[in-house]
């Protein structure tokens, strides 16, 4: 974060210099202020302009911070607008995609969408939040967006999970919670062991893992994540709000209540 601010501040300083050059080039100072009708910038050397800008910024450094804050606020506004547009234009892909698993009430009146990775430590800790919210709210629907972003092991584990959901959708919630709470690293072997413990046939699972629709589902999820500015896990969509990180049960409950009101 500190490096981003430094880079941003340097960029702002350069912008000030460019603005200063533009201003001085177009300055309409009285003829008496210079010996000819030539632009003021023409009477100053580049080094003199840079020195003026440098001295001003050193004397008034708070200006760079003010501009940096304004820039960050503008970027956040743009991001929220893009998120709202993505939710408005792709509600079925976000909330009702056929390839997503569901935990809680499939017919619930409010939906929480969670982007997760089976090897995300924060997702593992957030599992208890989901379990508590679902237990307390019989009308809550949790949609699980399989979003493998933590390496090849994660992708293999999610392949097993996607195949499991297709073959045993009614058991997906239990499988999901078993794999996410697994103490070791999730990979194909651990995911397969857990899947087989639910009575599924390994040959059928492996055949379904080769289904090209799974890769298509991953691609759609990655595209949605990009549109929603989701770059990490867990991330949630509740109503028209995108929530980043494991914010905890109370924060999610507040967002759910707000979505219901709207």
Uncertain spans, ≥5 residues at pLDDT below 50? 1-14, 16-38
* Named CATH topology of the largest domain: Glutaredoxin
Order of helices and strands: HHHHEEHEHHHHHEEH
Count all strands and give the number.
5
CA-based gyration radius:
27 Å
Note the total helix count. 11
CATH architecture label of the largest domain? 3-Layer(aba) Sandwich
Mean pLDDT: 85
Strand content: 5-15%
CATH superfamily of the largest domain: Glutaredoxin
- Profile the largest sheet: 5 strands, mixed
Q: What class, by secondary structure content?
A: alpha+beta
> How far do the termini sit from each other?
34 Å
Relative helix content: 55-70%
Total individual domains: 2
CATH top level class name of the largest domain: Alpha Beta
Side by side, the strands of the main sheet go 1-3-2-4-5
What shape does the CA trace take?
elongated
């Amino acid at each position: 974060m500190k490096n981003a601010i430094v880079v941003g501040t340097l960029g702002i300083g350069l912008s000030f210099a460019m603005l200063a050059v533009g201003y001085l080039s177009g300055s309409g100072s009285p003829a008496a202020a210079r010996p000819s009708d030539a632009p003021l910038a023409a009477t100053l050397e580049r080094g003199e302009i840079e020195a003026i800008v440098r001295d001003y910024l050193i004397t008034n450094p708070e200006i760079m911070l003010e501009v940096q804050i304004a820039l960050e606020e503008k970027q956040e506004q743009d991001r929220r607008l893009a998120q709202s547009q993505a939710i408005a234009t792709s509600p079925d892909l976000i909330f009702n995609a056929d390839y997503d698993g569901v935990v809680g009430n499939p017919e619930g009146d409010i939906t929480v969408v969670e982007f997760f990775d089976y090897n995300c430590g924060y997702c593992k800790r957030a599992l208890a939040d989901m379990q508590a919210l679902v237990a307390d709210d019989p009308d809550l629907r949790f949609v699980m967006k399989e979003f493998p972003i933590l390496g090849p092991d994660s992708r293999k584990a999610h392949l097993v999970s996607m195949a499991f959901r297709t073959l045993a959708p009614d058991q997906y919630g239990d499988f999901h919670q078993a794999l996410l709470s697994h103490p070791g690293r999730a990979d194909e072997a651990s995911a397969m062991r857990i899947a087989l413990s639910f009575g599924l046939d390994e040959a059928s699972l492996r055949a379904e893992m080769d289904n090209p629709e799974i890769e298509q589902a991953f691609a759609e999820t990655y595209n949605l994540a990009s549109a929603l500015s989701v770059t990490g896990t867990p991330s949630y969509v509740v109503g028209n709000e995108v929530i980043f990180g494991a914010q905890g049960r109370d924060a999610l409950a507040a967002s759910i209540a707000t979505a219901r009101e709207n």
